[in-house]
User: Fold this.
Amino acid sequence: MIVSEIARADWAGRLNEFTAVHDGWLVSVDVLSPDIGAQRQIDNLPLLGVSADRINHDGSVAISVARPSGTHFRHVIREVRRIYIEQTSDGADAGLQIESDDGIKTIVRFRVVALPETVDGFVRH
Assistant:
C-alpha cells in the first residue's frame, strides 16, 4: 500500500476528483480514537462525496453516503490536520485517511479496490 499526503492547498480539488471517480462505490468508514479504539461509522454504503469546507475554511471534511431508505448520511470531521490517500502498487485508490488535531483518524475504505477504468469488467478508453 502506498500512502501519500495531500497538501492542504489541494484538499478541495483532490477530494472533488476522488468523489468524481468513486461516486457510488461502496465504502466503510471507521474512526480510530486513542480513547475508545476503532468504531465503525459507515458499513458498505454508496459514496456520494468527500468534500473539504471551502466557505468557512475551518478545516472540516464531510463524507456523504446514501442510505438504503433513499436518504443520505453525512459524517463530518472537524479540525482536520492531514489527509492521506491510500493506493495499491498498481495505482488503484484504496481509500483515505483523515487525521484531526485531536489525534483521531477517520479511515475510508472501499469494499472492492480496483482501477476505475476496470470496474465494469472491461477497460474503458
Summary: The first helix runs from residue 11 to 22. The chain has one domain: 2-116.
